[in-house]
Amino acid sequence: GFQGRGIYLAGDGRCFKGQWEDSIIHGVGVYTWPAGREYRGQYARDQKDGFGIFNWPDGRTFEGFWQGGKQHGQGYTMAKDKLRSLGEWREGRRVKAYDN
User: Fold this and answer.
1) How many domains does one find in the chain?
2) Where do the coiled-coil regions begin and end (predicted)?
3) pLDDT for 79-99, tens place per residue?
4) CA nearest 33: which of 51, 19, 16?
């Protein structure tokens, strides 16, 4: 399979630039979608896994930990007004918010 660094360009405008192992995304990279979303961070076995930053085109951001493609562990959200909020996630759902 494909190993090392590479670029994947999908017909629908998605793009991944980063590391591959056995022809799957594994390591560090940047994934962008045509509507303006972007994930920059760690991957394991084709899924967001480890530390990463996800940006939405409307200015919202999640910066924190991922497991199996979902937010999992501590992370910060930043709203469009740039207010940051620390929280805890489990399998993509926010389960705890910490006071700033």
Assistant:
1) 1
2) none
3) 988 889 999 999 999 999 987
4) 16
Strand order in the sheet with 84-90: 4-9, 15-21, 24-32, 38-44, 47-55, 61-67, 70-78, 84-90, 93-97
pTM passes above 0.70 = yes
State the pLDDT at residue 100.
Answer: 58
Domain of residue 82, residue span: 4-97
Q: What is the CATH number of the domain that holds 79?
A: 2.20.110.10
Do 94 and 86 meet the contact criterion of CB atoms below 8 Å apart?
Answer: no
| Rounded (10°) CA dihedral 40, 41, 45, 48 | -70
Quote the pLDDT of residue 99. Answer: 72
Give 84: exposed, middle or buried? Use CB within 10 Å, 0-12, 13-18, 19+. exposed
